[in-house]
Structure prediction request, 128 residues.
Amino acid sequence: MKTVLIIDDSMFMRMVLKKCLKDGFDFEYTEAKDGLEGFEKFKTLRPDLTFLDLTMPVMDGFEALDEIRKFDPDAVVIIVTADIQEQVQTLVMNAGALMVLQKPPTTESVALAVQKAIEVKNVMEANK
Ligand SMILES: [Mg+2]
Prediction:
């Protein structure tokens, strides 16, 4: 796991997430400020892991998740949101998200999420 794409319209949130990641992992980071920019960057970068906000202008996270998973059914996407509604969680999980990470992220919660992503990627690799 090397490349990480962070899609969030809040520059502050992107910074917080990156800071949490940098405490434990040595990744290369690319950022996008909305779903459309995120999807475009996903297509060119093909990141190992994507963190995706839900509420964003231009294209929201629900639509971006659909586009990303349509483009790459193996895409590993972690939704980062403050929305704790069960419907929202069910919706994004059904749309192929790996998991939902609660805002604000912490070094611990981000580390657990990345571990899960690494495990899933290892299983996908082993089944190829
Ligand atoms: Mg947002």
About this structure: Helices lie at 11-22, 35-45, 61-71, 86-94, 107-126. The first strand starts at residue 3 and ends at 7.
